[in-house]
Design brief:
Blueprint lengths: L2 E8 L7 H15 L3 E8 L4 H9 L3 E6 L8 E7 L3 E8 L6 E8 L4 E8 L8 H13 L9 E6 L7 H9 L1 E2 H6 L15 H13 L15 E5 L4 E8 L17 E7 L8
Parallel strand pairs: 1-2, 7-8
Antiparallel strand pairs: 1-12, 2-4, 3-4, 5-6, 6-7, 8-10, 9-10, 11-12
Helix pairs in contact: 1-2, 3-4
Length: about 270
């Protein structure tokens, strides 16, 4: 049965330390050698995702900018060595956010990969729950009922309603093997620019959530969800090591999540 390897990571649209951390991303991804890479917070117009694809020599690259005022500033990206078809984008509604989806052609089967970055709101969020519902509806009713993988930065910790909704239809790759989610995937010790930190704090107040400000907060926001008909062989937190020259420089302010998945050639359908 064919196997595929997947990495998802939010690479942080704040590029103030990109020159220091981009080689950590590149070296880490090269060592993992994933078949599919899902990236969130791809800075525009610089487009570091394209740089990663070129450096890794991956032939297929799908960039999907966010909507509205964010269209020229930020995107999602999928990088892969596998043939793709039918790339499409979903307007998630709220904060200019989107999901992107591609179909991946394997030797004897097809599956879809969806990449998303859901609504940011500290604590529980009705808006994020609605985005998760919209995402699931978008991933339903394909001819032939192919299996799917949904990954990204969901901006929700494991107990929140949006993540619970995802678990009604999908398995979390990491939790399926380890019995729980990682202790945390965000934030790493990577220093952020003054503007980036200020923007985050302003977001708390604009969303009327100042009570959620915790200087030492850590949590799991990043997931790889898989169709239960697929078999998770391995999953771990990755891209979690600092630079040897500077212990505060990490690949991003998020760790990545990795999964190796086995795809049965004869998948039962409903």
């Amino acid at each position: 049965m064919p196997r595929i390897k997947i990495v998802t990571i939010n690479i942080l649209t704040d590029l103030s330390r990109w020159e220091q951390r981009r080689m950590l991303l590149l070296e880490g991804l090269a060592a993992l050698s994933p078949d599919l890479i899902a990236l969130q917070e791809v800075h525009l117009p610089q487009n570091p995702a394209r740089w990663l694809a070129e450096q890794l020599d991956y032939p297929h690259f799908v960039l999907s900018p966010k909507l509205g005022r964010s269209e020229s500033r930020e995107a999602l990206a999928i990088i892969t060595r596998l043939p793709l078809e039918d790339a499409s984008v979903l307007d998630l509604g709220g904060q200019d956010r989107i999901a992107q989806r591609v179909f991946v052609n394997l030797e004897e089967s097809t599956l879809y990969l969806a990449n998303c970055h859901l609504y940011w709101q500290p604590g529980e969020s009705v808006a994020r729950m609605r985005q998760a519902e919209r995402l699931q509806n978008w991933l339903s009713g394909f001819p032939g009922d192919p299996p799917g993988i949904v990954c990204g930065d969901f901006n929700g910790t494991p107990e929140t309603l949006a993540i619970q909704l995802m678990r009604q239809r999908f398995l979390s790759a990491y939790a399926a093997l380890h019995g729980k989610e990682p202790d945390y995937t965000c934030p790493t010790p990577l220093p952020r620019s003054t503007w980036s930190v200020t923007r985050t704090f302003l977001g708390f107040f604009l969303l009327i959530r100042p009570q959620h400000i915790k200087l030492n907060w850590r949590g799991t926001l990043d997931y790889i969800f898989v169709d239960p008909r697929l078999q998770v062989i391995h999953s771990q937190v990755v891209l979690d090591q600092p630079s040897r020259e500077n212990p505060r420089i990490y690949p991003s302010d998020h760790f990545g999540v990795y999964a190796e998945i086995e795809i049965p050639t004869n998948i039962p359908t409903e």
